[in-house]
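Example: Transcriptional regulator, Spx/MgsR family.
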Amino acid sequence: MTFVCYPKCTTCKKAQKWLDDNGKSYEVRDIKENNPTYEELKSWYEKSGLPLKRFFNTSGLLYKSMALKDKLPAMSEEEQLKLLATDGMLVKRPILVSGDTVLVGFKEAEWEKL
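Written out as structure tokens, the predicted fold is:
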């Protein structure tokens, strides 16, 4: 399993504690230092079954400063994925990748299904 997170994020800290408390083994990947590539994001998006908007950190400062709420609806999926690949701070976190399962954000009930 790969745990993609931002170490200063409180939600990521909660998710990591949950993984540890449940004895899950995982590899940590700091999203700020090692931003997901376009190819990774495309693969995760396809496996997740989620709308692409769920991959955006809509509460983040960068998202707000770029006025993406207004711009995203007019952008193609490819343009959105390329934009996400430019900066890890645009990406919703944590992301847990385990084989064909991709979880975005931390909802304990979803993670328990792993």
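The chain has one domain: 2-112.
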